[in-house]
Specification:
By secondary structure, the protein is an alpha+beta fold. The protein is 20% helix and 31% strand. Strand 8 and strand 9 form a beta hairpin. It binds zinc ion. The site of zinc ion has 8 residues, from loops.
Length: 225
């Protein structure tokens, strides 16, 4: 019998705010969305120019879409403190780089969730936007930027790829809208199986057309051979 241990209920860990350096200070549960008010755990009081102690000047609010919890959008209202250096007069706001990218309207945890929803769960951008509680263009831009960064700009993404398969797949089964998508699959493991001394047959169900490619790792370009 497994021994299950429990810890005290904790909104910070449940919502993974602690991983982003935040601490919840309030919550608002509505029928169609939830709002969590939060502040940074470690005040950023020291001047980045001269190192002197700053004094709190005011706060500003940054609204971010977080990972949806409880089947409704979860919004973070982060109250960001601004400080003024007592020695040189420099003014700065607390660093939220662990929480969200600059100018982003989604937390760093919500962005990969949105990308996975589109790529793996095959949700539409409209559905992803509704889940996050953001506008269609906001979700679309976040998914495109994340996809570009994780799937295209990563030069190591094609490491070990020697054979790819191309398949036309019907992803929408309605009378309206585009329903076909071209899928490119790494079939190197299948090729290796067929050329091994054991001469194992290809995996059942793998019927994709294969083409030989040459990978240019530096620029992520594929050249059909
Ligand atoms: Zn200073």
């Amino acid at each position: 019998m497994s021994h299950v241990t429990f810890s005290a209920p904790d909104l910070d860990s449940f919502c993974q705010l602690d991983k982003m350096g935040l601490r919840a200070t309030g919550q608002q549960i509505c029928d169609d969305h939830s709002v969590i008010e939060a502040v940074t755990r470690d005040p950023d009081r020291w001047c980045r120019t001269c190192g002197a102690l700053g004094v709190a000047r005011d706060t500003e609010v940054r609204r971010l879409a977080h990972v949806p919890l409880g089947w409704r959008p979860t919004i973070l209202l982060v109250r960001v403190r601004r400080y003024r250096c007592q020695a040189c007069g420099k003014v700065w706001r607390e660093d939220l780089s662990k929480v969200a990218a600059p100018r982003s309207k989604l937390t760093r945890q919500a962005v990969p969730r949105a990308l996975k929803s589109v790529v793996l769960d095959r949700l539409t951008i409209a559905r992803v936007a509704a889940n996050l509680g953001v506008a269609w263009h906001t979700a679309n831009r976040a998914v495109l930027d994340a996809g570009r960064e994780l799937l295209i700009s990563d030069a190591s993404g094609f490491d070990g790829v020697e054979v790819i398969g191309v398949d036309e797949h019907a992803w929408r089964h309605t009378r309206f809208g585009s329903k076909w998508v071209t899928v490119v699959i790494d079939l190197t493991p299948v090729r290796d199986q067929t050329t091994s001394p054991d001469e194992k047959p290809p995996q059942a169900g793998v019927t994709h057309r294969t083409v030989n490619v040459q990978c240019t790792h530096g620029s992520n370009t594929l050249r059909l051979g």
